[in-house]
UniProtKB/TrEMBL annotation:
Its main location: membrane. It is found in: Cell membrane. GO terms for cellular component: plasma membrane. This is Formate-dependent nitrite reductase, membrane component. The keyword Chloroplast does not apply. It comes from Halapricum desulfuricans. Keywords: Cell membrane, Membrane, Transmembrane, Transmembrane helix. It is a multi-pass membrane protein. The chain crosses the membrane at residues 20-46, 67-87, 107-128, 181-202, 214-236, 248-271, 291-317. InterPro entries: Electron_transfer_protein (IPR052049), NrfD-like (IPR005614). It comes from the Archaea.
Length: 364
């Protein structure tokens, strides 16, 4: 079935020329948008209500990790996407050549450019400025790296890259409504990056697996879920595993996982009786070549186990006092949940690409 083959009365078409780079881009694109949304929610909703130094620390670490992860993911994802192109440098001409705004490819490109700008600026504002001088936290690693570069360069006495960046950040960083407006526009771009790839795939109407009714919802849930997991994995590593911030984001992630699971079940039900190509994809995912990736990696280890683990820990935190006595175990449990969600998010894109089967042609 991987090449053109004839059955009794059907002509099967080759499934395509997908490479792992595209699955990597689909994963990192959704993750980057979700991480930025996590950063914005932590800054706008959780940080103003935080009480006590530990909770404030957890909120600020989550904001910074979300922005840093967003920058790294969109940068690496962009390289993965360009590496798939025959002439990657032509992508630089997109402002001139990409003018068909009826295409999700063009719309998505502009979403990526706009989002990359906003998430980079957000990370800059959260890492530099007078208020961040001398601050502690694992998320300040990029600032520490710039400081080490500062020390290594033969700059004139009194000159400092970190000081210059602090000065620039303080003068460019908006406050109040202007900052919220920046977050709002950046969030729109983030959602666009998360979902446009699903809409682009669903334009290929001959692939039943890329169902227009289900796939955008799956991506819209999985992107923020992986973004939360990546950002909160940083917060846990920074020592905020037992914070209220982590608990709230973990519950939000559980809700996303629940909706994503129900949507995937709906997609599988539709595939099971959707015609020859749909049934081929159904078999590939649940009993064929991609059973380990989808049934085990996505459904079991990427959705069911993290949800069950999170619900168990949430119940113990809510109704017992074991969290602080077994702090290390809970911290490890949260870290394990987030790692499983991230692995499942990548395998989801992989299975959706490689398990896609085109509708066969009828042979007269």
């Amino acid at each position: 079935m991987s090449d053109i083959a004839t059955g009794s009365d059907l002509l099967w078409i080759a499934r395509g020329h997908w490479e792992i780079f595209i699955a990597t881009y689909l994963f990192l694109g959704g993750l980057s948008g979700g991480a930025y949304l996590t950063s914005v929610v932590s800054s706008e909703l959780f940080r103003p209500r935080a009480r006590g130094p530990d909770e404030i620390f957890a909120c600020e670490e989550t904001s910074r990790w979300g922005a840093i992860v967003g920058v790294l993911a969109i940068a690496v994802g962009g390289v993965a996407l360009l590496s798939h192109l025959g002439a990657p440098l032509r992508a630089l001409t997109f402002p001139v050549l990409f003018s068909n705004f009826g295409s999700w490819l063009v719309i998505g490109t502009w979403f990526i450019v706009l989002f990359a700008l906003f998430v980079t600026i957000e990370a800059f504002w959260l890492l530099f400025g007078e208020e961040h001088a001398g601050s502690e936290g694992l998320s300040y690693v990029p600032r520490w790296i710039v400081a080490r570069i500062d020390d290594a360069l033969p700059l004139p006495e009194g000159w400092s890259i970190v000081a210059a960046l602090d000065w620039l950040a303080d003068r460019l960083r908006p406050t109040g409504r202007a900052r919220r407006a920046v977050h709002a526009v950046g969030s729109v771009a983030a959602v666009g990056v998360i979902v446009y790839t699903a809409l682009l795939l669903t334009d290929v109407s001959v692939v039943p697996l890329w169902d227009r009714q289900y796939l955008p919802i799956v991506f819209l849930m999985s992107g923020p879920s992986t973004g939360i997991s990546a950002a909160l994995l940083g917060t846990v590593a920074s020592g905020g595993g037992l914070s209220r911030t982590n608990h709230l984001f973990c519950l939000a992630d559980d809700a996303l996982i629940a909706v994503e699971t129900v949507t995937l079940v709906g997609l599988l039900v539709a595939l099971s009786s959707g015609g020859p190509a749909a049934e081929q994809s159904y078999e590939l995912l649940l009993s064929g070549a991609y059973f380990p990736h989808f049934a085990v990696g996505v459904l079991a280890l990427g959705l069911v186990v993290p949800f069950g683990l999170s619900m168990t820990m949430t119940g113990l935190v809510r109704f017992t006092d074991v969290e602080h006595r077994w702090g290390s175990a809970f911290t490890g449990g949260f870290a394990l949940k987030y790692v499983l969600v991230l692995a499942g998010g990548f395998l989801l894109r992989y299975a959706l690409l490689f398990g896609a089967v085109k509708q066969p042609l009828g042979v007269p």
